[in-house]
Amino acid sequence: MLKRLFPFLNWRFAKADLRADFLAGLTVALVLIPQSMAYAQLAGLPVVVGLYASFLPVVFGALWGSSHHLQTGPVAMTSLLTATALMPLAVPETAEYVVLAGVLAVVLGIIRLLIGFFKLTVVANFLSRPVLDGFVHAGVLVIASSQVGKLFGLQMERSGWYLRDLWNLFAGLPGTNWLALGLGGLSIALLVILKKVLPKLPAALFVVVVTTALVYFLGWSEKVSIVGEIQRGLPKFVPVALEWSTVLKLLPGALAITLIGFMEMTGVAKAVAAKSRQPLDLDQEMIGQGVAALSAGFAGGYPVSGSLSRTALSFASGAKTGLNCIFTGVFVALFLMFLAGTLYYLPKAALGAIIIVAVVNLLDFKRLFGYWKVSRLEGFTALFTFVATLVFAPQLQNGILVGAALSIVIFLFQTMKPNVALLGRHEDGTYRTHDLYNLTVDPQMPVIRFDGRLFFANTSYFEEILLDTCGEYPEAAFLAIDCQGINAIDASGVEMLADMVSKLRENQIELLFIRMKFPVRKMLDRAGLLAEIGEANFFHRIDDARARVYGESA
Predict the structure, then answer these.
(1) Torsion-angle region of residue 175: left (phi > 0), alpha (psi -120 to 50) or beta?
(2) 446 and 344 part of one domain
(3) 413 occurs within a structural domain
(4) Which of 244, 444, 512, 529 has its CA 20 to 30 A from that of 542?
């Protein structure tokens, strides 16, 4: 019980593991520090808030999670959704805005804890991959384009419609700050080149150091926008007041962050767990993410999630236990205490470049349009979600809600008309779809195969198929249903079968049931329909039914 409440008690250490975790923690911290500042700016927050969100959340996420490699902290999509949720309520980088960011983190933490405690992670299955990919690709474009203003040294207006703001930004390009553009372009070039030439070097940190030094030594601080003073010291406890009216306003954003963060966290955690052969408990992981979000809210931070890139880096750096995340948090704390002031002259153009390069790697339009090859409906869903997210920006959660709603509607329409096949006997003795193999249907006993759950949404469709088949084969004295594909049935399905048995018997036609699964048979028995139909009308094979019809030996 104690280890269930405190999962980190299950950790086992060896001397070699300690050294590996130390180095992995340091490696991740060198990437996390510049990323956290950049993502805080993306969320509309002071850079120090990003650093606060990179200390305790990293530690608590590891202590109460199940993965030894999942690195929690500021991430691009969560930061963008945070801005989406907060900007209608307050002005970015103001004290009110920072307070609301903490409230949002606490609300997010409570939601995650409830999901983890009640084992509700299965709810995420309602979000299909086409919807998620359509949303992520649109979100990446919004994130990347939102940093264009920093690169060009321009201020991006916020009118409530992102596409209009982006158009106005490009209209103002004649006023470009060429020095800021040069620093941003240099940053992007360094990030791209270093990733290829020296992949183990923390390129983002290198860019931060280089651009900060250039601004300081060349006296450019008055010519470009810089980060300015970063408060030194560890974060202090911040009391968070959860006013009901505020919580209701933040709830849609918190739910969107929960869903998107879970999908991102699940993907990378499963991939790393498969490679490390470490057991993964997604419900426990949600508890860890919930505790991490709460710690961020009460320590002056903002919503956090599991990071795809930093988790992969943790594993690639040789981390063995969750202790590597503890080391990451410790290194961030040391930076806050002793080195935060050294980045006073860091140009915001460099932070914009870090964000752009980090998120562009998430784009994979080949996969997005690949859904068309699998299914036109799936492809349309992905494209529709992509366009809707761009149109609704900055209210990104509306895009994913529309996409999810469309996905559910398409699913319902598909279940209303599942695959139904009329079977004929093949020369090898098996029964197959007659029109695909040009087979002859038995006019005395047509056999219909129904593929799918028989429930209220498709009972009328199946009833229509049965009646049409009787009309097409008027000489049939028997009508057989191959039930192998029927996995479940509800009360509406039972009622429909009862009506059909009665109607067909009035017309001297017996309804036969072949290969019916036990759960379906049990439902018929509960409803009393099994006795009404008669045991003699149930068969294990189609040939057994034919033996009754023709008096043959099966």
Answers:
(1) alpha
(2) no
(3) no
(4) 529
Same domain, 430 and 542: yes
pTM score, two decimals?
0.82
d(CA 18, CA 431): 63
| Res 423: pLDDT | 95
Q: In terms of Cα–Cα distance, which of 173, 113, 106, 162 is closest to 139?
A: 162
Domain assignment present for residue 415? The answer is no
Q: Alpha helices, DSSP H only, in 339-430?
A: 348-360, 365-374, 376-392, 396-416
Of 407, 439, 473, the one marking the end of a domain is 407
**Which pLDDT score is estimated for 337?**
95
Tell me the sheet residues that pair with 511: 479
**What is the pLDDT at residue 275?**
82
Residue 139 to residues 359, 363, 390, 397, 475: CA-CA distances in angstroms? Answer: 9, 10, 8, 10, 61
Q: Which of 258, 310, 312, 251 has the alpha carbon at shortest distance from 285?
A: 258
Tokens 């710690």: give the residue. Answer: 295
Domain assignment of residue 377, given as a range = 2-92+103-232+245-407
How distant, in Å, are the alpha carbons of 336, 481, 522, 552 from that of 540? 72, 12, 16, 16
- Say whether both 396 and 429 belong to one domain: no
What is the distance between the alpha carbons of residues 50 and 304, in angstroms, rounded to a whole number?
9
Asked whether residue 376 is assigned to any structural domain, the reply reads yes
pLDDT digits (tens, 9 = 90+) for 414-424: 888 899 999 99
Residues 445-498 pLDDT 10s: 999 999 999 999 999 999 999 999 999 999 999 999 999 999 999 999 999 999
Q: From 407, 432, 451, give the residue that closes a domain.
A: 407
> In this structure, are residues 467 and 507 in contact, taking their beta carbons and an 8 Å threshold?
no
pLDDT over 70 at 4, yes or no: no
> 68 in helix, strand or coil?
coil
Please check whether residues 397 and 424 belong to one and the same domain: no
% helix / strand / coil in the chain, to the nearest 5?
65, 5, 30
pLDDT in tens, 321-334: 999 999 999 999 99
* Position 398 confidence tier, pLDDT thresholds 50, 70, 90: confident
Q: What DSSP string describes 101-165?
A: HHHHHHHHHHHHHHHHHTT-GGGGGGS-HHHHHHHHHHHHHHHHHHTHHHHHT-PPP--S-HHHH
Give the closest residue to 349 by CA, choosing from 203, 170, 223, 229.
223
Kindly state whether residues 433 and 538 are assigned to the same domain. yes
